[in-house]
Amino acid sequence: MSLAYARNGLLGVLTPQANTTVEPEFSILLPPDSAMLAARLVSAKPKLHDRLVDYVAGLDQTCAQFANAPLGAFAFACTGSSYLVGPKAEDEAVARLSTRAPFITAGRAVCEAFTALGAKRIGLVSPYPPDLTEASAAYWTARGFEVARIIVIATPGAAFHPIYALAKGDASAALAAMQGAGVEAVILLGTGMPSLGAILATPDVEGAPVISCNLALIWRAMAALRGEAPDAASLRHWISGADWRGRYAERLGI
């Protein structure tokens, strides 16, 4: 089906209820001939960890928000949920929900990005609290990667949310501390952390490509929409910002 604003595919994006980064970054990353619809992952649980697990439990209901929209793929933009439910439960959810269209999680997209790059030894830049950082490291280890170094970003505790309120330069500052780790790829963790400016400024650390959860997710989702194989060449093109650098500058007025 051809849509006026989505000739190259319509993406259904699932994002945590208070996340203020996924949609702005996706609007920059998405090519002009594609479009997205967003659904909010909602939970009334007061504790963060409980909400993240609840998001996975409610995925069928969340996907139902899209009704019969002609989606070419789903993009689950919440890595924290994957860490806490673990790879087995994540894989089972993906298999179940992919009967309508490819269901792509940010966690699995990052793993595919590492694999495409031939990266086993990785570095993490984390905006998470200690327990979620540990859960993240355990997730990547369970997926077969060696976590060589973790750089934790100090978050503004008085803000409405410690991750979503990070400044666009915070990730860039953290990347300098990754030098000397001997990693083969660096991931800027969390779909809520502003990451595009850091990738443009520092696309690699001593030759190790720098990716973010949102960039890996859009790379994998666009391959699904286009019916293409998600390979290293296309990923490196995304990292270069060749197609989205101008939209980023326009969005930020720089």
Word description of this protein:
The protein has 254 residues and is of the alpha/beta class. It folds into 2 domains: 10-107 and 214-229 and 241-252, Rossmann fold (3-Layer(aba) Sandwich), CATH 3.40.50; 110-213, Rossmann fold (3-Layer(aba) Sandwich), CATH 3.40.50.12500. Helices cover 43% and strands 18% of the residues. The chain contains 11 helices and 9 strands. It has helices at residues 22-29, 48-57, 59-63, 79-97, 106-117, 130-142, 170-175, 196-201, 213-226, 232-240, 245-252; strands spanning 10-16, 35-41, 73-76, 103-105, 121-126, 146-152, 185-188, 204-205, 208-212. Strands 6-5-7-9-8 form a 5-stranded mixed β-sheet. Strands 2-1-3-4 form a 4-stranded parallel β-sheet. Helix 4 links the parallel strand 3 and strand 4 (103-105). Helix 2 packs parallel to helix 4 (79-97) and helix 4 (79-97) crosses helix 6 (130-142). The chain is globular.
